[in-house]
Amino acid sequence: MTPSWLEAHASYIDSSRTITAHLLTFNAGSVDHAALLKVPMIPPGVIRDSFPLTLDITVAHDVSIGQSTDSDIKYGVSDGISVIGFATCDKGNFGTHSPCYGMEGVPGSTLNPTRSEPVIPKPSDSFYPGQFVFTLKLDERWGSCYTAHDAAFVRTAGYNNGLVLSKGLSLEVYKSDAGECWD
User: Fold this and answer.
1) What's the number of domains the chain is made of?
2) pLDDT tens for residues 149-175?
3) What CA dihedral angle connects 5, 11, 14 and 15, to 10 degrees?
4) Does 183 fall in a domain?
């Protein structure tokens, strides 16, 4: 998906953004846990609640932002009732946090976080990966996050809440703190 495709197909996209052919950048704002982007993936009524569904999502961050700017972004899948997914950390958090960890919450104009996995173990190196690969096994309530670089980091998460697949699914992106930026 290109930045222009995301902009064209989003059901919601934050107005504090700039876009180029290769980058969709969200600037700092004034609201913690603010929604940045919501993109419908599967319309309501298309699949059964018991359908075995695995989603693979790959995201790439502008490495210069993740190394020097507060940029802790949460990626999730939502049925409109709950969000499950992963929080990603910028390099500034690597002293105390892993590059990614599981999270879940209630969607809206802001994410109401209800539960996060522990933020440890921290990575063995300080290289900021820039690219994250998320796998979500929606019918089994678990997922994994993989950082795509030579000293790869893998993290799994279990989720308390399952999604109601028949309600439809959307990809949702939130910032952690108001002042965060994202590419």
Assistant:
1) 1
2) 666 788 899 999 999 999 999 999 998
3) 80
4) no
